[in-house]
Amino acid sequence: MYSAQSLFEENLTPSVAEIVQLQNGEIWLVATGRGLFKVDRENNKVVALGEINKICGTQSINHIYEDRFNRIWISTDRQGLVCLDASGRKKAVYKTPDLPGNLAGIVLEDKEGALFVTVAGTVLMFDEVSSTFYSIQS
Predict the structure, then answer these.
(1) Cβ(20)–Cβ(62) under 8 Å?
(2) If exposure means fewest CB atoms within 10 Å of the residue's CB, which of 56, 58, 73, 88 is most exposed?
(3) How far apart are CA 49 and CA 31, in angstroms?
(4) Model confidence, pTM
(5) Other beta carbons less than 10 A from residue 47's beta carbon
(6) 2-46 pLDDT, tens per residue?
């Protein structure tokens, strides 16, 4: 059994904004203004995902999503949308002009496998073939 007090080090008191369990069983946390962390179950603590935080270029993370291909999509505040492969290596970083203002929000995949992301008050859809995002017109 985990307790919040034992999971976080005394000098780390983040505000957890999101918690996600990846398909490999790892539990990742988004800590407001502090980046990404992973639950270390063996040692009953939370550890920073330092290399992934560096790839993101910011500690202002908005959302994490793992798609059906085990790619991990990390939406950031002003650093775009980061895509990691299943091993955690950088696959791509999407920024302006694909993502207006480099602001990425919620990422979601529908049952057909289409990937959507909220950006600056609109919804974009990912085109796997061209590896770009396009606006969904109403």
Answers:
(1) no
(2) 88
(3) 11
(4) 0.85
(5) 13
(6) 544 555 554 455 588 899 999 999 999 999 888 999 999 898 889
Query: What does the alpha-carbon distance between residue 124 and residue 63 come to, in Å, rounded to a whole number?
Result: 15
Q: Return the CA Rg of the chain.
A: 15
Q: Which amino acid is at 67?
A: D
Is 122 strand, coil or helix? Answer: strand
Read off the pLDDT of residues 70-95 as tens digits, 9 standing for 90 and up. 999 999 988 999 999 988 889 999 98
From edge to edge, which strands make up the β-sheet containing 107-109?
A: 107-109, 115-119, 122-127, 132-135
Q: Which three-class secondary structure state does DSSP give residue 112?
A: coil
Residue type, 55: I
Which pLDDT belongs to residue 11?
Answer: 43
